[in-house]
Specification:
The complex is a heterodimer of chains A (about 325) and B (about 300). Chain A is mostly helical. Chain A contains 13 helices and no strands. The N terminus of chain B is likely disordered. Classes of the chains: A mainly alpha (about 325), B mainly alpha (about 300). At the A-B interface, helix 1, helix 6, helix 7, helix 8 and helix 10 of A face helix 5, helix 6, helix 8, helix 11 and helix 12 of B.
């Protein structure tokens, strides 16, 4: 019991630290967005242009008026966030409601992408290291290189082209590539579920492929470093079976760098989700990243930043727990 | 140093003849081992070829990336327009070469800057420990929590119209953190090794220990990360440009070209495929070269 006490303390300290970081990051994003985005221009660009007094009143109402000092706007905004209210979007909608809707859309994509991609990536990397320079390793290395060398938007477009070709060849719409479901879809639970699955395949595949490529690279190189070390050779020499030596002694140590990396892969995944959601027409958080900036929606930008920060925080905590489980020195 | 390398070499079973008078240099060994990796050499050749193409190619074509041919709108590849033309009659070959120059230079500069920064910050934090470590890593964590893509996008109005070098520095400033964390972790494990302790007790200064003893021992990791950073840099640049947050018109990069061609990728493939294909080829060959270097630098990676 007392063995785990230092770990709990360690995790609590990390959590507190991360919370401060998220608060700082969100504040920074709010202030930067408040300074560099120009929502006033959007109102003034309307045809016919509304009278300046009306624009001012509307901007003040939304707490995005550039005539109010940024720190004052920030204080008002923080006051709202402290009560759990992220303010209103450019169109006067509640940011909270919009965010709730979009998180529900994105989370499916992000969770499946991380778990499936991470596990498969680690396995592929470890396998590649064990079979170094065999045909399977060479093929896998080349494949992960190819994916790593392909920006998400190229990958997504290529998958879409392949899917269009497949659909044409089969003569049925097996893969859907716009939206997360077919609007006005009739039928029972299974029809709806099937429809959502059809829409889920391409965006998820895009993210999973990306994750596998990144993780297998890290895992392969970490595993190679470990395989070359004396204790793995000793483990085999003293009579452990190869599988046991590789899994228990080599893979466990080689997972440590990947666990560190896991915490930060979430940020990359979020960027991946931005392109994926944009290209496949999902109205999730990723799409909001771009849309909130192009529409100069300051409150939405801050909310998106906060969401990303919290995601990275959670994945960081998960990574810390992995780390502590894998490396006994951390627990001391 | 040489002796050490020779010893490891002997242990690895793959060895140069032991010549007491002329010990093979570490650099020589790396070059020789690199030469044995056919794929890596091919990657290097492709990369050199692409560089040459990007800078010599425009001289061979009679079109510039800004000129328009009003006799050819949206035409496929032909003898006059090697990569076809756009809707406005611009020559896709000239544009692609120009974009390739930009993307290559941005990618290399950003990777160099960010990896150097990561190595220095990570090694100092890990080696010194204490409050230096805490402050540096806290800063790293702060930058990591900030969604870099978002911040760069938010700041894009600020560097519109300014030099693209500013864009390079900003990109590098948001790419180095992961590498720095890994470097720090490895430095902590190297810090207590005998040769580092020996150097410290002999009175070798901290910067010298870091640059001569610690960083060379994690060079394989740094090289892998530099290659990954090149791909991250180029992919970030193209990604930002894709949404209009990066390289601004009239300047072109592979990113803006791909963005312009994406919607017509099925109907007018030359608008999309040449830029996308070259981009993938560039990063692919950089990665293959990096992997070859890894195997060349780490003598123990050979037998497993």
């Amino acid at each position: 019991m007392s063995r785990w006490l230092p770990l709990t303390k360690f995790l609590l300290r990390r959590l507190l630290n991360s919370l401060i970081l998220v608060a700082l990051a969100t504040s920074l994003a709010y202030i930067l967005a408040g300074l560099s985005l120009d929502p006033r221009a959007r109102y003034e660009g309307r045809n016919p242009p509304p009278p300046p007094a009306v624009v001012d009143q509307r901007l003040t109402e939304l707490n995005i008026n550039d005539k109010t000092p940024i720190l004052e706007r920030y204080a008002t905004w923080v006051g709202g966030v402290a009560r759990g209210d992220f303010g209103r979007t450019f169109d006067g909608q509640s940011v909270n409601e919009e965010m709730g809707r979009r998180i529900a859309v994105s989370l499916r994509l992000l969770l499946i992408g991380t778990i499936v991609g991470g596990v498969l990536g680690v396995l592929a990397g470890a396998w590649g290291a064990i079979r170094q320079y065999r045909v399977s390793d060479q093929a896998m290395t080349l494949l992960s290189f190819a994916i790593l060398s392909t920006p998400v938007f190229v990958l997504a477009v290529l998958l879409e082209i392949v899917a269009v070709g497949f659909n044409d060849a089969v003569g049925a719409k097996v893969f859907e590539y716009t939206g997360e479901f077919t609007p006005g879809q009739q039928g029972g639970f299974f029809a709806n579920f099937g429809d959502r699955m059809q829409h889920l395949v391409l965006p998820t595949l895009t993210l999973v492929l990306l994750q596998i490529a990144i993780f297998s690279r890290y895992q392969r190189s970490a595993m190679l470093d470990v395989l070359g070390s004396d204790y793995v050779r000793t483990a085999q020499a003293k009579g452990l079976r190869r599988r046991r030596a590789l899994l228990k002694h080599a893979l466990r140590t080689a997972l440590i760098p990947s666990a560190t990396f896991f915490a930060y892969s979430f940020g990359l995944l979020m960027v991946g989700a931005t392109f994926t959601e944009k290209i496949f027409g999902w109205h999730g958080m990723g799409e909001w990243v771009v849309d909130s900036i192009t529409s100069a929606d300051i409150n939405a930008v801050a909310a998106v930043t906060c969401f990303t920060g919290v995601l990275v925080l959670i994945s960081g905590l998960v990574a810390d727990i992995f780390y502590a489980l894998l490396d006994p020195r951390v627990r001391m | 140093m040489n002796r050490l390398v020779l010893n490891q070499e002997g242990g690895a079973g793959d060895r140069a003849p032991l010549d007491e008078t002329r010990a093979a240099s570490r650099f020589g060994l790396i070059v020789r081992r690199f030469g044995q990796r056919r794929l890596a050499v091919a990657g290097l050749a492709v990369l050199v070829g692409l560089f040459a193409l990007a800078f010599v190619g425009p001289l061979l074509s009679r079109w510039s990336y800004t000129s328009h041919d009003f006799d050819a709108f949206l035409q496929g590849p032909s003898a006059t327009h090697w990569f076809g033309t756009t809707q406005g009659g611009a020559d896709v070959f000239a544009q692609t070469m120009r974009g390739m120059q930009k993307s290559l230079i941005i990618g290399l500069l950003v990777a160099l800057l960010s990896t150097t920064l990561a190595a220095v910050v990570g090694a100092f934090a890990g080696y010194l420990g204490g409050w230096v470590d805490r402050v540096l890593m806290w800063f790293v964590d702060l930058l990591l929590v900030i969604p870099s893509f978002l911040i760069l996008a938010i700041m894009s109005p600020a560097f519109r119209g300014k030099t693209w070098l500013l864009f390079v520095i900003l990109l590098a400033a948001f790419i180095w953190m992961v590498t720095a964390r890994i470097v720090r972790g490895m430095t902590i494990s190297l810090r207590e090794r005998e040769y580092v302790l020996a150097a410290r007790y002999m009175g070798v200064s901290t910067p010298r220990i870091i640059f001569r003893h610690i960083l060379p021992n994690i060079s394989s990791l740094l090289i892998i990360d530099a290659t990954i950073n090149v791909s991250i840099a180029i992919i970030s640049e193209t990604g930002l440009s894709y949404f209009g947050f990066g390289v601004q018109s009239p300047e072109v990069s592979l990113g803006t070209l791909i963005a312009a061609g994406t919607n017509d990728a099925v109907t007018y493939p030359w608008l999309f495929m040449f830029a996308a294909g070259l981009l993938v080829l560039i990063v692919l060959s950089v990665n293959v070269v990096g992997d070859g270097l890894r195997d060349a630098i780490d003598p123990t990676s050979k037998h497993s």
